[in-house]
Amino acid sequence: MTLAELKALLGIPVEDTSQDMKLSMLLESGILAAQSYCDKLDFLTLVDAETGLLVLPAAVKLGISDWVKANQTMSARQGVTAESIGGLSQSFSGDETVIYATAQKHWAPYHSDVLFMPVRRRHGR
């Protein structure tokens, strides 16, 4: 996934470079989050041999975009648990499972609900 693809998904014009440094870091972090969550997907096999670029499935890219949006929203509202303005009120959850749920829905086909852990041998057996 490229910065230009992320900007397109976020509705940011490619010419607008004012957020490029921040978006590049968020993109890198989002790819790592996807790689961690998408345990059925071998990211090493997704590297294009000719260009060396990581070619991700569309659902993974959409999830990364949603992960970035959630991360931006979370940092903008950090510390706010509830607010009321003119009769309207809203609350924000700090629970990461809620915050990143939209991204994880995109990544679900590449995620295993079963986690296998290596078994250690006991001494004497």
Note the gap between the termini: 48 Å
Oligomeric state: single chain
Q: Percent range for helical residues? A: 40-55%
Q: Radius of gyration from the CA trace?
A: 19 Å
Q: What's the average pLDDT?
A: 86
Number of helices: 5
Catalogue the unreliable spans. Answer: none
Q: Tell me the strand percentage band.
A: 5-15%
Give the spatial strand order of the biggest sheet. Answer: 1-2
- Overall number of strands: 2
Q: What composes the largest sheet? A: 2 strands, antiparallel
What does this protein look like?
It is built from five helices and two strands. The protein is mainly α and 125 residues long. The chain has one domain (3-110). It has a two-stranded antiparallel sheet with strand order 1-2. The relative contact order is 0.16. The mean pLDDT is 86.
Question: What would a concise description of this structure say?
Answer:
The protein is mainly alpha-helical. It has helices at residues 3-10, 20-37, 58-76, 96-99, 101-107; strands at 82-85, 88-91.
Brief descriptors of the model:
single chain, 125 residues, mainly alpha, two-stranded antiparallel ribbon, 5 helices, 45% helix
Write the layout of secondary structure elements.
Layout: H1 3-10, H2 20-37, H3 58-76, E1 82-85, E2 88-91, H4 96-99, H5 101-107
Antiparallel strand pairs: 1-2
Helix pairs in contact: 1-3, 2-3, 3-5
